């Protein structure tokens, strides 16, 4: 009787300890957007010759959840191709990456309940033979022990369900050369080069971007390296006076596709803002990557199924979605690395440059939750 009781309990614990995920479903986001801190998340794909960067940033929306004025400037080493992505499509895309890289989660509440249950069972088994305590728990058909096990099992299954399952032309004024002007989704975008940081700051101020003299040194560094700049501003159409944000309070992302010899995430302009920022990055490449330990590696793994499904993008004509990357072999790169960190302005004075690891090793972090 006792052996059968303990065997059933052990089997139940093994079943509960094995997380189950189903493909093709929605999953809850493990990585929450911090409510009171600047936040960036990005997907970076690098094949050794080019980089695809999907960049999304938090924005303080109005009371009605609409965006009426938002702009950003992204430095890039070469002139990029720009592709718009709908914010809801980005939510699903990043949610999928989040699910693939979920850390090993240890629910402390469930463990506490199981510990209490184990203590109770041990206390009963150690009781003297024939004692009233043993008769109550083992000699009655519906004893208290079975009731406790049943209630505890239900509670633990509910806790695990809540944690695992769902609920994604020459230089112009100020020495600035406008290489192209285009409408990309909700953004009016200009790609520019500059002769000096001071002239670029003046040009940006005339375009109503909030930069000042303190930013000139950062821009000078990019200019000296021959980089160009993507200046994007929300530009609702005449029939759309406002633009809705994403489900998570993030503005619609931009996809930048550009040639480069190294995988880089531009961060120095963010550091010039002088505020701490949380950064979440997913890097798809031939091998595991690192960035001099400036961000913590939460997950490093071979890509399940050998391919990351690219996000749907918006067409500029009628805002329908399509998949222009469906036949792009870069989405079949074999290794995915997830990195995260909260960086101070001093830690963001230089861009993040990613290097391949000497050896690919799977990494899976552990989180403790109540």
Determine Rg (CA atoms, Å): 27 Å
Shape: elongated
Largest sheet: 8 strands, mixed
Number of helices: 8
Structural class: alpha+beta
Average pLDDT confidence is 76
CATH class of the largest domain: Mainly Beta
Strand content bin: 25-35%
CATH architecture of the largest domain: Sandwich
* CATH fold topology of the largest domain: Baculovirus p35
Strand order of the largest sheet: 5-11-2-1-13-18-15-20
Query: Any low-confidence stretches, pLDDT <50, length ≥5?
Result: 9-30, 162-169, 238-243
Secondary-structure element order, N to C:
HEEEEEHEHHHEEHHEEEEHEEEEEEEEE
The separation of the N and C termini measures 34 Å
Total strand count, please?
A: 21
Description of the structure:
The longest helix has 21 residues, at 144-164. This protein is an alpha+beta fold. The chain is 27% helix and 29% strand. It has helices at 2-16, 87-100, 108-125, 132-138, 144-164, 197-206, 216-224, 268-272, and strands at 39-46, 50-57, 66-67, 71-76, 81-84, 104-107, 176-184, 187-194, 228-234, 243-244, 254-259, 263-265, 277-285, 289-290, 296-302, 313-314, 321-322, 335-343, 352-356, 363-364, 366-369. Helix 3 (108-125) runs antiparallel to helix 5 (144-164) and helix 6 (197-206) crosses helix 7 (216-224). Strand 16 (313-314) and strand 17 (321-322) form a beta hairpin. The chain has two domains: 2-14 and 104-164, no CATH class; 39-103 and 168-369, Baculovirus p35. The strands form six sheets. Strands 5-11-2-1-13-18-15-20 form an eight-stranded mixed beta sheet, with no helix packed on it. Residues 9-30, 162-169 and 238-243 have low confidence and may be disordered.
